[in-house]
Amino acid sequence: GAVVSQHPSRVICKSGTSVKIECRSLDFQATTMFWYRQFPKQSLMLMATSNEGSKATYEQGVEKDKFLINHASLTLSTLTVTSAHPEDSSFYICSAIKGSSSYEQYFGPGTRLTVT
Amino acid sequence: GENVEQHPSTLSVQEGDSAVIKCTYSDSASNYFPWYKQELGKGPQLIIDIRSNVGEKKDQRIAVTLNKTAKHFSLHITETQPEDSAVYFCAASYTGGGNKLTFGTGTQLKVEL
To answer: In a mutagenesis test of the A interface, which of B37, B99, B108 is the best target, namely the one with the most A β-carbons within 10 Å?
Structure first.
């Protein structure tokens, strides 16, 4: 199998606070994980690539100081949205590649973030 | 960078009919083309993929075709069922360049009874 989980599934936070989202590969090791955000009725936009044991690579236009990514183990990557604002409200989805030589991405169920 | 266009944006078919979704890509270096199904409020689910050294791949009611020369690939769903209703995304990546996926804009498929 290739199961990816995310926690929490949905979170509501107040403007100015920080929120951490976890992404776990449950039955495989993932040297590479990706973080996407998706607005309603739109496609997935890649935010960053997370490699175990190294700094994340952010896509152009994504603030690395606002979206902190940590990939501390082969099964866990976290995304922290710092000083969240209402415009950060979105559906955040992670994916993981199974093994170091594969290329198939398996996606988590997503996290719905609402900033009030 | 890679750009992936997807058509149509919405598709409505009768149960039992076939559905075809088409995508074009711009980067000739792309060599991996997955298709994902996304149900409301859930993450995308990989349903089929194809590599550039293959022209067609089939898995039961689902098939994907790839034309490298024209840089387009298509998803074919036969004998559609109501549970096929979802948003479908095509994507493209270059497996030698970090495996970053570029997604199409999505197709909302509705299978009517």
So the answer is: B99
Give tens-digit pLDDT for A55-67: 899 999 999 999 9
Tell me the C-alpha distance between B78 and B18, whole Å: 4
With beta carbons under 8 A apart, name residues in chain A contacting B30: none
Residue of A nearest to B5 (CA): A43
**A38 closest CA partner among A46, A26, A48, A29:** A46
Q: Give contacts of A48 with chain B, Cβ < 8 Å.
A: none
> Within its chain, how far is the Cα of B20 from the centroid?
9
CA–CA distance, A91 with A107 (Å, rounded to integer): 13
Mutate to test the interface with A, among B4, B10, B21, B38 (most CBs of A within 10 A): B38
Q: What angle do CA B74, B25, A97 make, to 5 degrees?
A: 85
User: pLDDT of B3-48, one tens digit each?
Assistant: 999 999 999 999 999 999 999 999 999 999 999 999 999 999 999 9
Closest by CA to A66, choosing from A52, A78, A46, A84, is: A84
Q: Which residues contact B52 (CB under 8 A, 6 or more apart)?
A: B30, B31, B32, B33, B66, B68
Indicate yes or no: CB of A34 within 8 angstroms of CB of B100. Answer: yes
